[in-house]
Design brief:
This protein is about 50% helix and about 15% strand. The strands form two sheets. The chain has an eight-stranded mixed beta sheet with strand order 3-4-2-7-1-8-9-10, sandwiched between helices. A two-stranded antiparallel sheet has the order 5-6. It is built from twelve helices and ten strands. The chain binds adenosine-5'-triphosphate and magnesium ion.
Length: about 325
């Protein structure tokens, strides 16, 4: 059975190498979902949030902040999630505060393998299953995951916990989370790369790993792809002008600059193909935008491009 379009899945996880545009793509997707009338929560998994810079809101640290109508942003950080978890479990606020301030607490949350990811996934699970007046609080959750390795660990946290816990209520809970995270009707993973060899390789490897773990990879996004107003057919004419001693220096420089855009676009198109072939996934292509500051219209432009890209249709998805 074909997988549903990405926009129909309740939980979308955006993953990729550091700095490739995960936060930007997650924000563009969340904005598009909210525009379609879905009450959407954009979750940035990070101690320091960049979402505020994208939408020009207050930092969405302690509670969801409404960034646009129907679009709420929240930052989830493992240490804060841990404090919250402990305060619910222990019900003794001063004790939790004392523990949280201690260096040992910090060291444990940093060092225990998989603990940060597990607590973070638990928090996302709580948000995904939250119900108010008999209906889910959030129609869609878009998770802006940490860079590849940590992002993968986050997606695998439930399976790791289930394996560790053996049997009992913790194992049952981990099992329930894992079933949803793996189900292509509920969850979709989006892998982001920029059109550069290293990012494409990392994305390809991450997709192979995720498929091996049965995770529902839905599509890839090639972000910040350069285009040129000139086609490859113009290149010869431009080269001639650039090399023509009879042409003025301004003309030669302009031809050189135009050629650079043709070469840049050709390079990026090759990397986009490599991304699609390597991952065996449909690739949504996002352009470089001039300005992403709040109010510049940049994020709206990317959102419109993403939401109309056929790659989101789920064709070829796992
Ligand atoms: N399509 C684009 N056009 C122009 N600039 C972009 C585009 N996508 C992202 N950027 C810029 O690139 C930078 C990195 O983007 P972003 O913060 O989304 O990456 P990230 O993958 O979330 O990074 P990190 O791994 O640090 O969380 C930002 O300054 C962002 O504004
Ligand atoms: Mg980011």
């Amino acid at each position: 059975m074909p997988s549903p379009p990405l926009t129909d899945r309740r939980l979308v996880v955006v993953l990729g190498k550091g700095g490739v545009g995960k936060t930007t793509v997650a924000a563009a997707l969340a904005l598009g979902l909210a525009d379609r009338g879905h009450r959407t929560l954009l979750i940035e998994v990070a101690a320091e949030t960049r979402t505020a810079a994208v939408f020009g809101t207050a930092p969405p640290v302690d509670a969801p902040v409404e960034a646009r109508p129907g679009l709420f942003a929240l930052s989830v950080d493992a240490e804060r999630a841990m404090q919250e978890y402990l305060s619910i479990q222990l019900k003794v606020r001063p004790l939790v505060e004392m523990m949280s301030r201690s260096r040992a607490f910090h060291q444990v949350t940093q060092a225990a393998p998989g603990l940060a990811e597990l607590v973070t996934l638990g928090k996302i699970w709580d948000l995904a299953t939250a119900v108010r007046d008999g209906r889910p609080v959030w129609d869609r959750l878009v998770v802006d995951a940490p860079a590849t390795g940590h992002g993968l660990a986050l997606l695998q946290a439930a399976a790791s916990m289930r394996d560790l816990a053996g049997s009992g209520p913790i194992s049952d809970q981990a099992d329930a989370i894992e079933r949803v995270v793996r189900h292509p009707a509920a969850t979709g993973v989006v892998v982001v790369a920029i059109p550069e060899e290293l990012a494409v390789t990392e994305a390809t490897e991450a997709v192979t790993l995720m498929r091996g773990h049965g995770l529902p990879v839905a599509c890839a996004v090639a972000n910040a792809v350069r285009t040129s107003p000139f086609g490859p057919g113009d290149a010869d004419a431009l080269r001639q002008v650039r090399a023509d001693p009879a042409a003025g220096s301004a003309e030669r420089a302009a031809a050189g600059a135009a050629l650079a855009t043709v070469d840049g676009a050709a390079h990026d198109a090759r990397e986009v193909r490599a991304l699609g072939d390597g991952c065996a996934l449909p690739v949504a292509v996002l352009p470089v935008v001039a300005d992403l500051a709040p109010g510049s219209g940049g994020i709206e432009q990317l959102s419109a491009a993403l939401m109309t890209d056929p790659a989101l249709g789920g064709a070829g998805a796992a």
